[in-house]
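Just scan my protein:

——
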Amino acid sequence: MFKTKKLWNLMLAMGIAILSAGFTSCSDDDTPTISGNGIENAQWKEINDAAIDGELLVYEFDAPAAWTATSSEKWCELLTVKGGKGTSSLRINVAPNEGDMGRSATVTIRVEGYADPCELTIRQGDGFIEKGNGRYREVNKWIYEMMETYYLWNEQLPELRLDYSLDYDLFLTSVLDGVASFNDINHDDGYWVNGKRQGYYSNIQSNAPISRSAGESFSGSGVMIIPTILGPNDDDPCGFAVMYVIPGSPADEAGVKRGDFIQTVNKVAVTTTNYQSLGNSVLNGNVTVDLNSVKFVNGVAEISNRVASVLIGKETFVDPAIYKWDVITTDNGKKIGYLLYMGFHSDYDAELINVFSQFKSQGIDELIVDLRYNNGGHVVSSTVLGTLIAGQAHKGEIYVKTTYNKRRSDAGEVGEYRIGIAENPEINQNYEPIAQALDKSLGLNQIYVIGTANTASASELLINGLRGLDIKVNLIGTTTNGKNVGMEGWRKKINNYSFDFYPITFYCENAKGFRDYSNGFKPDLEVDDSPIYPGDFGTTADYLSSVAISWASNGTKPSLNNMSVVKSRGVSRTMRTLPMTEAFKEPLTHRRGGSIVIRDMED
């Protein structure tokens, strides 16, 4: 179980890992001294087919030292399990395959003093033939066992014909696809666009992740940019609009700000033909750029240089959960708290509580929670934020209830997270920040939330959880992601590699039992800011923030046609986004997010 802060850090390793080669394991010697496996002149292939009726396979090879061999399957019996230096024969007795499915086994040979094992696959099949090399068979068996017990839609799993020889990521996808073949019963396990599933939420990661979460470190410049043309014509100014800068990143240290416009990279002008390569350079770092300010007069962009020849470095840095907080005093004297929260991560719960302590001491009247880029995280952290908002009047009331598959539900299993109550279903011990949050809570009857399609999971838990307590959530922006399910996380070590598995295992309900938001929460005030050039978060220069501040200040829903932030930039489209590559999207997707519950994780 997770019992330390260190273990919590391990929970959100980012991205689905794909290992293109097999495991690389050390030999049983304490200190292997020679790289490679040492074997030469081997007569086998990487994949070796055996007769369906069984046969004796004999392969010769040369070894520079004593060796031992093991087989992963009993039907693939080794008649020679060890040998000495020189030429040896590997004798394998393959039993008849009397089943209706193909099968494969991995034979592993280790030479004394050499760091790496040598692996060969013995494949035997008829009818349904396994397509993989079988190197991840043990991992896949673990995946299936966990899915059979915990997956939210597990009832059809025994009916699937599965290929355990596949790489573990492909095996998981095959299981999920198999369940989906039953009238798409696991429809809610995945994000859909225009009737097409963009991918599954359930995922498995190795210790070589390709994405990260709030609280995780990664290398680069630390800036999110959008390639754009400032105007309706192709010859209008072309460059990169800075959408956000990660605090503490090289871009932050260089003084880059949201709303800056970059027209040159390493003294090369950005154009519609070179923007992809130049954009990659900006994202990777170690580049020199110009930083320009943009304002619009009668819908026409006017660009002025703010800082010339700024060097943006490349470093490894931590992406925090809290980007900005502020107390805004409006013309009518109202005090509005503003929080730009980028990911629910338990390591930042103490900082989150401190921010609300400042809100409370300054006597704010209203609260804006900006979740436009927040795609989720820890359920306990969402409960901390819900407690900070709801306060003493709702102590002990259900914030979120997790409901499981039929087998677990029939056994009486259910998870409840309650306002201000440290006890929770994730760990044996209490999670004290939930109780500590009660002392710094605001006890608000309504809040204002900025949300977009990036707003998902634990962020949507906040909306749904507070509405279940009859706290009014005024949602501003566009329809949220629609992830009404959550995942539990397990870690297992196999062949010296760690595998973190996060299958979808529960629905998220509020105190009223509502969970049907798989199509997302529709905004109370729909505001699409994609054509509007960005301004500083939490100010009237930012379109979404300006709308939220106006509503919170006056208590009435504003008319968008009268918003000064739009009129000052021209009502027509003022920013045209060029086609976005995966590199441009990566800063938006490197936080895997989710509604995540921690279960058993091996060190």
Summary: The longest strand covers residues 300-312. Confidence is low (pLDDT under 50) at residues 1-29, 208-213, 565-573. Residues 353 and 437 are 6 Å apart (CA to CA). The first helix runs from residue 5 to 10.
